[in-house]
Write a structure and sequence with these properties.
about 475 residues; disordered N terminus; 19 helices; mainly alpha; two-stranded parallel sheet; disordered C terminus; two-stranded antiparallel sheet
């Protein structure tokens, strides 16, 4: 979208043609696939080192705290650059954002591989790997903010939540693959170089597909009535509207707290469990179980919400059940020889926690319409990353060294996580209580579509009129 006047032109055009047929295009599935692959690859890069933190510290000759910064750099970059990213998505368009994100992600993964070459001096290994990780971190907002934008631009209203779910959960699938394959590859190859080389392959494929295959900024004809006025507000005005929207601000703070808690859970899981005698492969399995159940829950929720539009009810119920799971995890993670219980709690935690993310992002769009989808989603993610950074620093500060821990299988110094996990559960519960008590909203996008003139949606592989020339939406 160039400015507000372009959307006015489109509205006038459609108002003069009550018989307009909104169209959807089969190539939307290709774009969805590319975005899914990008999100998956970028998430694998984010969590590459967390499931094998001990071994990574040994290979890179660094401390565990520096290994944690290989994940934390994603948080720092998101905090400082996400607002720019939302402007890029809502102003320069989806195509530009996906191609730029794919190149940053690809270059970052390749640079990480270069950092492990024998010709690189030992003192330079960590800086080079961190440089590649930082490039991947710059790519993250460009691809993780895109699902709501892609769903709104290319999919009809009865497929939006499902499309958003698939693109968003691809990021979670990437976390799953990292949890499974990082310990597996390290144990079989005993080589961090091979691990990083394997993770670079999907990033290279995604970059090629995005660069060659994505050729349009928007579809020739909008898929729904709401897309006519979406992003009609200039970027800064849209941000101002969001910051004065009470319902959106409650979602921003409370759900952002949930994102922060899940970031802590993903980053620290292996370190929390190893002190009690649980090996890295079990920690990776627990993370994988949480993600598998999260993807399953997201699939079911996406179908349910597309049919019922009960965004608020689903989000509140899932956040309550997530808080319960987090509280139980805080207790059972301090027990030894309880693999089944810990695995079951991680499954519960994932089924209700991971799965609600795409629904909450759609809820953010509904309560803030017609502000651009990337802006509303992006600010929530920024809130989550800011809180994640604060929580991680707080939890690491609360983790106290242990003089003796006979059960520990940690490679580095042993620390007690009893207080940090209880604090994490308390933060999750506090955010949930505030959201349940204070969040109330009207579904503005659904209401706008309901009041629009009746139109039909057709599925086209090619063709359409000149909507793409009028607005970048």
């Amino acid at each position: 979208m160039d400015d507000g006047s372009s959307s006015e032109d489109v509205r006038s055009h459609l108002d003069s043609r009550n018989t307009t047929k909104f169209k959807v295009y089969k190539r939307r599935w290709f774009m969805l696939f590319v975005l899914c692959l990008l999100n998956c690859s970028n998430a694998m890069s984010w969590l590459t080192f967390a499931p094998v933190a001990d071994q990574s510290a040994q290979y890179l000759r660094i401390s565990l705290n520096l290994v944690n910064w290989l994940s934390l750099v994603y948080v720092v970059v998101a905090i400082f650059f996400s607002l720019i990213t939302t402007w890029v998505l809502d102003t320069l368009g989806l195509r530009f954002s996906l191609i730029m994100g794919s190149w940053l992600n690809m270059l970052g993964t390749v640079l990480r591989v270069i950092g492990m070459l024998n010709c690189i001096p030992e003192w330079a290994m960590f800086p080079v790997v961190m440089g590649g990780q930082t490039l991947c971190a710059f790519a993250q907002p460009l691809v993780i903010f895109a699902p709501t934008k892609l769903a709104a631009l290319w999919f009809p209203d009865h497929q939006r939540a499902t499309a958003n779910m698939m693109a968003s959960m691809a990021n979670t699938v990437g976390l799953l693959l990292a949890n499974i394959f990082s310990p597996m590859i390290i144990s079989y190859t005993i080589s961090l170089f091979m691990l990083l080389l394997i993770y670079a392959i999907p990033a290279i494929v995604a970059c090629f597909l995005a660069t060659v295959g994505i050729r349009e900024r928007v579809p020739p004809t909008p898929p729904s009535a709401s897309m006519v006025t979406s992003s009609s507000e200039p970027f800064l005005q849209g941000v101002k509207l969001l910051l004065t929207n009470k319902a959106y601000m409650v979602l921003l703070v409370c759900f952002g707290s949930g994102i922060g808690v899940f970031t802590c859970f993903s980053t620290l899981l292996e370190q929390i469990l190893c002190v009690k005698g649980y090996p890295n492969d079990f920690a990776g399995l627990c993370g994988a179980v949480a993600i598998v159940f999260g993807v399953l829950g997201a699939f079911l929720l996406g179908l349910y919400v597309d049919k019922t539009k009960k965004f608020t009810e689903v989000t509140k119920i899932n956040m309550c059940l997530t808080s319960l799971g987090c509280s139980v995890f805080a207790v059972v993670s301090q027990l030894s020889e309880q693999k089944f219980i810990i695995g079951a709690v991680c499954a519960w935690f994932g089924f209700f926690g991971y799965s609600v993310y795409p629904v909450a992002m759609e809820l953010g769009v509904e309560c803030s319409y017609p502000v651009g989808e990337a802006t509303s989603s992006g600010l929530i993610f920024v809130s989550g990353q800011i809180q994640a950074a604060i929580y991680l620093l707080l939890l690491q500060a609360l983790a106290k060294p242990m003089a003796d821990s006979p059960l520990s299988v940690c490679a580095d110094a042993n620390v007690s996580w009893r207080v940090p996990v209880l604090v994490m559960a308390g933060l999750c519960t506090l955010g949930t209580c505030c959201f349940v008590g204070f969040f109330h909203t009207d579904y503005r996008r659904i209401r706008a579509e309901a009041t629009a003139s009746p139109n039909t949606v057709t599925d086209q592989s090619t063709g359409g009129d000149t909507w793409a020339n009028s607005t970048d939406a």
